[in-house]
Amino acid sequence: MAGSKISALGAVTSTDDDNSLVTIAHTADSGSSFASKKMTITNLISAASAATSGVTAGTVSASKALIADSNKDLTGLRNLTITGDLSVTGTTTTVDTVTMQAANAITFEGATADDYESTLTVVDPTADRTIKLPNQSGCLPVLAADSAVQITSTPAELNILDGVTSTAAELNILDGVTSTAAELNILDGVTSTAAELNILDGVTSTAAELNILDGVTATTAEINKLDGVTATTAELNYVDGVTSAIQTQINAKCATGANVNTLVANTSAVSAPSTYYFLVVDQSDGSIKVVDKTFIEVE
What we know:
- The protein is of the alpha+beta class.
- The chain has a domain at about 245-299.
- Helix content is about 20%, strand content about 10%.
- It is built from 11 helices and 8 strands.
- It has helices spanning about 40-50, 155-160, 170, 180-185, 195-200, 205-210, 220-225, 235, 245-255, 255-265, 295-299, and strands at about 5, 10-15, 20-25, 35-40, 105-110, 120, 275-280, 290.
- The strands form 3 sheets. The chain has a 4-stranded antiparallel beta sheet.
- β3 and β4 form a beta hairpin.
């Protein structure tokens, strides 16, 4: 290459036979003069050797050249600033911590490449926030509107509603209820209607007074027979033990004079009979007894 010359916009000139010196020059606009720069091949080789010395292909070394491995992989690069767009054509991106200075941070295309995407974004934070994904498989619930209110219920507490079919209006019935669980359980098994329960509205009877009716089988009509009764307990007790109609018994005993005559014999005879019968009251028990004349005379 000694003595060779390449000229166009510039020239490369070798000044000795061992090619140890190379002159690189380019022409001025007029093409009549050269501004030359010199560098030795030895210097180039030395700089390249220093940049690659100790470098393992595929692994980044500080202040060294970047050399990809046979798979075009490179490991260990950090704090890389990209002023343009970064396109990743692979399927997996593994990172430790990502800080995104963007309002719409992550956009998911989905399985179908179309005009519709899902965007994962944040409400502008007013303090450092930490949001954790639970250690469970499943779907994350979403809210219908932006909110700064924290849900304080635990998953276990929220699961109490699992299977509840009540409407909001039905649940609001409990609003203001102060009864305890034990008090509400009193209604367990009650089949009465609201109208039937309202019958108790205004009742001032005590439990003891209500218990008087325990076991009563009388009808309303039968109980109403007591309405207006002025007899005392003692007077009512006179009928204790009576097994048939009192008036019928009285009528059978002395309804007519003939019945009396049956008891004391015939009283219509003009002449005095030889035997007389008298009705007397036994003072010991108040009963009426029939005695004859002989008994009266003895007394």
